[in-house]
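SAMPLE LOG
Freezer: B-3
Tube label: C17
Construct: single chain, 508 aa
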Amino acid sequence: MGNVTRTITVVAALLWLSAASSLAAPPTCGNKNCRPNAALSGLSGGALAACTKTVSAACNAMTCTCSTNGVGGTCDGATLCTTTTTTGAATTTTSSGAATTTTSSTAPTTTTSSTAPTTTTTSSTTTTTLGPLSLKYTTAPGTSSCGGTGLSTPPTAPFSGEIDSDTACTAKLADLGSSCLYIGGGANGAVPGGPTPAGASSYLDLGSGNALVASNGTGKLDCTKGSGPASECVDAGVCVGGPTPGATCFTATGCGTGGTCSGADPHKACTSDADCGGIGDSCQPVANCFFGPPLAIPNPAIATLASCNINVVKTDASGTGNSTTGDASVDIPLQTRVYITANNGSPCPKCNCGTPPCSGTGATGCSYGPNAGGACSTNSTTGNAATSNTSQDCPPEFGGGLFNGALAVELNPLTTGSSSVTNISGTGSGNFCAGQLNNGAFGQASTQCITETGMAAGNLTDGAPHAAREGVVFCIPATGNGTVNAVVDLPGPGATSLPGIAQVVPTP
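STRUCTURE (predicted):
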């Protein structure tokens, strides 16, 4: 990772990014129930069979429904299956060595003579053309334990990688748990690995050849398009109470006596940090696509450093994929906006609706923050009550001085193959990232190699959901908080894997 771009303190779900095991399509999406919907195309024979597969795939992707006992359903074969029919003129030829009489027309041509006939027939062919397709990826649960601080307590299976004490990557120090995010250099003695949220979906459209291109998805929660072009302050709030209620504010004291900078994001336009109270990196391109739900990172050593992290797609995602083998390699440029909430029990506000997927409002709505009690929905699970149930409907306070920087990350390659990184400063140095102060990774000072290993999805051309896993090793820059940098040992490496469900579906 010689020239690694400034990267992220957090990685939520990683793109390819979609239906978790709990979100698998219902049995009503089988060929039997989808055949009446496919029949609306007017096709027959093999063409109807191909169309039935297309309709079933759309049903599996939950973009429409098939019939129940032959009745109803919203999937329409006439829309989903475009048919082109090419018919060659039927030709009959009868030949002999004697005299020949020929009769012709614009359709069939018949040649007749006196000997036994020889007949050649060219029949019609029907081709069914599918509409645009996308790769949908939904993160799924991994291990139940990512291990202790410094990996002193090992994670539990399943594993997705390891750290080694040699640059040949053969002398294992510790395993890395599947779906876990590990951060920091060899001196990180405070923040252990933690699970990334399951249930986060992302789309990449299938381009020409094996290209994967940024997608509009179904909206801001699962698209992969870049931010901008306009910019806004990501550290702004609204005054509640005090002498200037409703005014835009940036700091805890910005609302005067009796006021708090705790209101909802006012989306204040900006052209530079000066428009945002002068706080570094606070004027950022408007987020068009979020990458997963907010990522909660507790800090067991110093609770006041617990953070809520909002991941947005910085520039268009891209990559390559093979739908026959299920192999993929993706580049997802992210920006992580870090907010120090100092709430170790719930670093991010949660949707208090129960077990995801769920929705709620009032007492079952957002637990705190500017949308406290507001309506929300979530698919996010981590197996940890402190970090589950996060939702973009329940953001942290952006104002009041909680903003702690916007960190760029280049998740490249996020791959179904193997990603191994050794030091960048020469054999034996143990430094993985530019500016790293202490050798090693994740609290293990002797680390000289970090590996994450993915798993290809297999043949995706059937339109069915397939289990897969993508992994990536990256670098994390320093934050705007010196204490955070010292405790977590930043700049330093990061590593994560994203088990999930991959599926080729009609483009939303």
